[in-house]
Design brief:
By secondary structure, this protein is an alpha+beta fold. 25% of the residues lie in helices and 24% in strands. The chain is built from 4 helices and 13 strands. The structure holds fe (ii) ion.
């Protein structure tokens, strides 16, 4: 389904394609949930309670996020395999288009704090099919700081770099921290009711783009993050996307890692 729906008064205008997909989604969901109602012997009062509870989430604009937390990775696996290449991962809510080009690969604009750990990430971008290195691939990185906060008004810890003639890139940044996404909204409350946290494992977001290739959106996970094995987004952390910290300085503040990227040529 595309995002073409517009609101006209109280009535949502949808395309014929969206209408057909909505019909399929509802019928299949209803059939799957009928089994849950049967198995759990859910009463009409409980159905009503669940309806009101999720209606509240919807009114807070959080229902899409709830679906993403539980189902986005399943959707990615079903629809965007990038077979043989770098696995795709969630885009998340914090991407900003047209981040500055970083000629020297340095992502920070504000001096990192005294607790920041510096990370030099290098690698080669290749074509999945031929294995050949790819020049001029735009690598758009963005991530949280050492305290788990994003710069959502400026471009600190955001930026684009390009692979060189040998397909190589070098990123100079800091190691991000894990963060909570929904501490102060109804999803956070929902997870609290489930006695679960709502923290993301520490990660660096990446979009890789080159004309003629399928755009890749993914995340790279920090190997020593506290929530690496307990990310609240179902199935987000996978071994292929988890960095190895190859070298760590004695004081622990300078780290180097390698991550090769492989993208697929677009079907013609
Ligand atoms: Fe993120």
């Amino acid at each position: 389904m595309s995002n073409e729906q517009t609101q006209s008064g109280d009535r949502v205008q949808i395309t014929n394609e969206q209408r057909e997909r909505l019909r399929e989604i509802w019928i299949n969901s209803r059939d799957a949930l009928q089994q849950v109602v049967t198995d759990l012997k859910i009463t009409q009062d409980e159905l009503n309670f669940a309806g009101r509870y999720f209606n509240r989430l919807g009114k807070s604009d959080m229902f899409p996020s709830l679906l993403a937390v539980g189902l986005a990775m399943t959707s990615l696996r079903a629809t965007e395999g990038n077979e043989g290449g770098t696995p795709p991962n969630l885009e998340g809510p914090f991407h900003i288009k047209s981040a500055p080009k970083r000629e020297n690969g340095q992502l920070w604009e504000k001096q990192p704090g005294p607790d920041a750990r510096f990370l030099t990430l290098t690698g080669t971008v290749r074509d999945v099919q031929s294995g050949a290195p790819l020049e001029g691939v735009e690598l758009d990185f963005w991530h949280a700081d050492e305290d788990g906060g994003y710069d959502n008004t400026g471009f600190n810890l955001r930026g684009r770099i390009f692979s060189d003639e040998d397909g190589q890139y070098t990123l100079n940044t800091i190691v991000p921290k894990d963060y909570a996404e929904h501490d102060h909204d109804p999803i956070g409350e929902f997870f609290q009711a489930l006695e679960q946290h709502n923290r993301r494992a520490a990660h660096i977001h990446l979009k890789a783009n080159k004309p003629g290739f399928v755009p890749l959106t993914t995340q790279l996970y920090m190997p020593d993050g506290a929530y690496l094995h307990d990310d609240y987004v179902e199935g987000a952390v996978i071994p292929e996307l988890t960095l190895n910290f190859d070298q760590i300085s004695k004081d622990g503040r300078n780290i180097s890692a390698k991550f090769d990227i492989a993208i697929t040529s677009a079907p013609t």
